[in-house]
Structures are given as C-alpha cells and as structure tokens.
Specification:
Layout (H helix, E strand, L loop, with lengths): L7 E8 L8 E6 L25 H9 L7 E5 L9 H9 L4 E6 L4 H7 L5 E5 L6 H8 L7 H13 L3 E8 L6 H14 L3 E6 L11 H9 L1 H10 L2 E5 L1
Parallel strand pairs: 2-3, 3-4, 4-5, 5-6, 6-7, 7-8
Antiparallel strand pairs: 1-2
Helix pairs in contact: 3-5, 6-8
Length: about 240
C-alpha cells in the first residue's frame, strides 16, 4: 500500500467482542481529535506519534488467518481521521474479510465515502446530543463537532449498513437522566440497536467506585425503558 499509508498504533489479532457475531482482528488507528475523559486508548490520540507498525506485515499475517478470522475492525483512535482508511479497507476486503468500523462520527463525508465498503459500524454516542454535555464527554468544545456527529448518524440511518449505537456510562459525566435523554433521542430517530457499556475507571481516576459505575444497570426504570424503546438493547460489562 503506497498511497495515503495509514498510521496504526497496534492491533488485536483475535477478538470475539469487537464485531458482533464475528471473530475479528482489530486495527487501532493512530490519532484522535477528541479527549474523552474515559479514554483507555490515550496513547492513540496523538496523530503524529509513530508506533513503528508495519502495515504490510499485518496484511501478510491476515493472509494466514483466512480460516480463523471472519472480519477486521478498524478502531482507534478515530479511524475517520486518516485519509488512507479507504485504501486500507479495500486491501483487507480483497482478502475476503468482513469490515467493521468503530467511530464517533468525526468526519461524515469520509464515512459516506467508505460506507459501501463496510459490513457493520459501532457508533459511539458519548452524551446527550447537545453542546454542553458533549463538551464534557469529548473533552473539547463540542459546538463545532455536534453537526458532524449528527450528520454521521443520519448517514447511517439512511443507509442499509448494519450499525449499533453505544454509550460508555461514565458516572463522572453522565447521569441516569442523561442516558434516558440519549435513549429517547436515538429511539425517536429510528436507531434499532443500542448498548450501554460499563465504564472501567482509567488509571488516573482513583475516586470512581464500582458501585458508581453499576448504578445505571441497577436502575430498573432506566433499563426497562431502554428495553422497550429498542428492538435490540443490552448491557456490556
Ligand atoms: S474518541 Fe475514542 S480514542 Fe478518541 S479520545 Fe475519545 S475514547 Fe479516546
């Protein structure tokens, strides 16, 4: 791959949890414009960092895994940042793998362009879709980001590509009412699959307790409401 080479921070060579109903490898793309306080991949945020990862070697590895893996997920970081994503996907797809994408919807035009190549998208909804909440969730001023996020979600809703929305329930930035708000919004927009993910405190977070993190899932009013709003809803811990 010579045009627009991608920068990769690392890979997970075998995963059963990152691509629904598929055994996959996960490509962690380097670079993210956001600074979510719950980020477990902060090392991937710096767009300029160079991990020394050699893409061609990974492609050679994938050629030996055709009978083991069903798909490859491009994750991050934020994969849509990199212009080389399309070529990388084409290269992996030509080997016969299904393609998944994890994104927060940072570049809708890029998402639109690569959408025909995708088999599934995991779309992060980090907070209620307003500037005040989203600024807390992505760690930068969100007013200019929200239109892009909403446009990306709209692109997915209008497409035939399988996708889910998911929210990491960080009690430092989200309340139970916030999650209800997100559920109401997504349900009214026509989202069919929604998942809540348990926040696991990052290393620097020494005050959030497990019961703080569990409170969302123990609230039967919230959970029952979400189950009734979405054809597919579940909790990931
Ligand atoms: S979008 Fe993902 S990679 Fe970027 S800061 Fe947030 S959690 Fe980390």
């Amino acid at each position: 791959m010579t045009d627009n080479p991608i920068k990769v921070g690392g890979v997970e060579t075998f995963s059963t949890v990152d691509f629904p109903e598929k055994i996959s490898a996960v490509v962690f793309m380097q670079g993210c414009p956001w600074r979510c306080p719950f980020c477990h991949n902060a090392i991937l945020q710096d767009t300029a960092a160079d991990s020394g990862f050699i893409w061609e070697k990974f492609i050679e590895f994938l050629k030996t895994r055709r009978k083991v893996l069903d798909g490859v997920v491009f994750s991050g970081g934020e994969p849509l940042v990199q212009d080389g994503l399309e070529n990388a996907i084409l290269e992996v797809k030509s080997l016969g793998f299904a393609i998944g994408l994890h994104t927060g919807g940072y570049r809708p035009a890029h998402l639109q362009k690569i959408l025909p190549l995708l088999d599934w998208v995991g779309f992060d909804i980090k907070a209620p879709l307003n500037a005040e909440h989203y600024t807390k969730a992505i760690g930068i001023q969100a007013a200019s980001q929200l239109p892009k996020i909403k446009e990306s979600l709209d692109i997915l809703l209008k497409s035939s590509v399988d996708f889910e929305c998911r929210t990491t329930c960080d009690p430092r930035i989200l309340s139970i009412d916030d999650i209800k708000n997100i559920g109401d919004t997504l349900s009214s927009l026509g989202v069919k699959k929604y998942f809540l993910q348990k926040y696991r405190p990052i290393e620097s977070d020494t005050t959030t307790t497990d019961s703080d993190c569990e409170q969302f899932f123990l609230n039967s009013n919230l959970i029952d409401g979400l189950r009734s709003q979405f054809p597919v809803f579940d909790i990931r811990k």
